[in-house]
Write a structure and sequence with these properties.
The structure holds 2 protein chains of 2 kinds. Chain A is of the alpha/beta class. Chain A has 14 helices and 14 strands. Chain A has 2 domains: 192 residues, Thiamin diphosphate (ThDP)-binding fold, Pyr/PP domains (Rossmann fold); 111 residues, 3-Layer(aba) Sandwich (Rossmann fold). Chain A is 42% helix and 19% strand. Chain A has a 7-stranded mixed β-sheet with strand order 3-2-4-5-7-6-12, with helices on both faces. In chain A, strand 6, helix 7 and strand 7 form a beta-alpha-beta unit. In chain A, helix 1 packs across helix 7 and helix 3 runs parallel beside helix 5. The longest helix of chain A has 21 residues. The N and C termini of chain A lie far apart (53 Å). By secondary structure, chain B is α/β, with parallel strands linked by helices. Chain B has a domain of 127 residues: Pyruvate-ferredoxin oxidoreductase, PFOR, domain III (Pyruvate-ferredoxin Oxidoreductase, domain 3), CATH 3.40.920.10. Chain B is built from 6 helices and 7 strands; from the N terminus they run βαβββαββααααβ. Chain B has a 7-stranded mixed β-sheet, sandwiched between helices. In chain B, helix 3 packs across helix 4 and helix 4 packs across helix 6. The longest helix of chain B has 14 residues. Chain B is globular and about 40 Å long. The chains are: A alpha/beta, B alpha/beta. At the A-B interface, helix 8, strand 8 and helix 11 of A face helix 1 and strand 2 of B.
Chain lengths: 360, 183
Amino acid sequence: MAKELKLMKGNEAIARAMIASGTDGYFGYPITPQSEVMETLMAEKPWETTGMVVLQAESELASINMVYGGAATGKKVATSSSSPGISLMQEGLTYLAGAEIPCVVMNAMRGGPGLGTIQPAQSDYFQSVKGGGHGDYQLYTIAPSSVQEMYDFVFDAWDIAFKYRNPVLILTDGAIGQCMEKCYTRDYVPRWTEEERRAKAPWATWGKPANRQHNIITSLELDSARQEVFNEKLQKKYREMEEHEVRFEALNCDDAEYIFVAYGTSARIAMKSMELARAKGLKVGLLRLITLFPFPKKEIARLAKQAKGMLCVEMSAGQMIEDVKLAAECKIPIEHYGRFGGIIPTPEEVLEAMEQKIIK
Amino acid sequence: MTEELIIAGFGGQGVLSMGKILAYSGVMEDKEVCWMPSYGPEQRGGTANVTVIVSDERICSPIISKYDTAIVLNQQSLDKFENSVKPGGMLIYDPNGITHEPTRKDINIYKIAATEKAQEMGISKVFNMVVLGGFLKLKPIVGSEFIHKGLEKSLPERHHNLIPQNEQAIELGKGLIEPVHVL
């Protein structure tokens, strides 16, 4: 599997990257707009080549708990779904975070609430970075905005998941999942051998050698004092992620007076709006957020000292804007522009919103 | 160079695959491409459309509302996308089944009687390639050697024997397209 240039859908890229990154297992349940993930895996039959297991579970609850079980043994186990399915997985996700189990979950967001629509949306931001499930936990949340990033971020996700013993959420939407773009595939990273797995996941339940105690995977702790110590440990891990794992892309921000802040599909649209603005002589830049947790607080705070205003572009009623305002400490005007329910804003209307709400 | 294109017609006319072949050809010529289908609760016999962007630069939005070119293959698509062509842009339509002709005066309008010709020659399966040929005659955004490579990449190997037929259809389309209203 040498490096190759292909044209593929975002969902297909996720599936191919799972195989190429040496993923051991995928457990999923189909839902539009990401069913191509499992379709691609089933068509590729990785169990015949790399030995990766692909299984259609009976529900999203089953999928996430199969992930829990598989990943507890230190194997690289993943799942994917779309908004309503991800809601069903929230209990599993908080257990995974509470038991410190590395895994990769992809959410191709669609319009909500409820069953909503099947078109692209970004209204699961709160659910992704503010909990979703109960308890003080965070998912490392990374938002691709191209097919190439869908592919590459699966590899990055495994590195982060095992480095921090934490679930990773790849947060995308139907537009990136469904569009086809160029994608450079990578060489196959072989699945870990038994020895490698034991070395990389010494905490996992892969059998008990005589020289150590049992490895116990649980999120239950009845002693409050110990649970507080555990929570402090989790928080320390999250602060380390905030220190070392923040990712963003600043475009034309050096001289920008006005800045779009967006991620995923919205960032692609805002990029076009920025081009249109620059053509009109307006000094507009784009801060594209790549990690949503850890949130690029420092960069926003830095830009808030330089810019006259920011427009948050999000396919939601305004969720990410809360974190942008906190990071900027409301030092400059920060407004939201969004469409929801599966409607994707046009670059022209996004620019118009910038002109009306921020530039004036 | 950036070409923002929409191809729209009935499901089954080969709209999506025509876009895919064009996109793959662009990849072969080392251009940036994006192929975005309309996906949704579609029905058999309903409309299908795909946006294709081919560019020398990084592509911004995969979702656009104004197009350099609209290729429309039925009345519904003509009605829906005539007004989405940028002023000075191009509209290509197949007159088959068209009862209301396009009316805009600020765009270039061409027609290609691909349905009729393909039926007459018994090559209905490559109807979409006839249309693609017409478009490439007017806007050769991808070289013909790369179209060949694009066909090789996008067609499964068992259908590679059909590539010459597809290429002949493209050539046929180049001769078939005719101006209706040119600025």
